[in-house]
């Protein structure tokens, strides 16, 4: 299992994320997304670029917890974006890259957790 942070826990980070987005070396067109997609993508960015903020605020977060949260929020973004805009091969490729990155981390991917994340996303989207 992993320590999953939900939207309620993450909403407190939104002002910090919004402040820091402009400092990223890559420019994201977040303003072109609807509010729901924008918020989801910002949570993905939090777990991608500012893990130290999460670690400072949430106790007992392991590197694997950060990764699984990052994967959850990216896949949620991916599924919702593609349900609204159609298949996007670039987003699909990015999801595979995320899993490849985990091969270089100090933990082994638990494929059962990955499968459970994907099932959770499917159930949340269909609600």
Characterization of the model:
- With 127 residues, this protein is mainly α.
- The chain has one domain.
- Helix content is 68%, strand content 0%.
- It is built from seven helices and no strands.
- It starts with 6 loop residues before the first helix and ends with a helix.
Topology, number of strands: 0
So how many helices?
7
- The domain count comes to 1
Q: Rg, please?
A: 14 Å
Helix content: 55-70%
As an assembly, this protein is single chain
Major sheet details: none
- H/E element order: HHHHHHH
> What's the end-to-end separation, in Å?
23 Å
- Given helix and strand content, the structural type is mainly alpha
Short description:
With 127 residues, the protein is an all-alpha fold. It contains 7 helices and no strands. α3 runs antiparallel to α5 and α5 packs antiparallel against α6.
Features:
single chain; 127 residues; mainly alpha; 7 helices
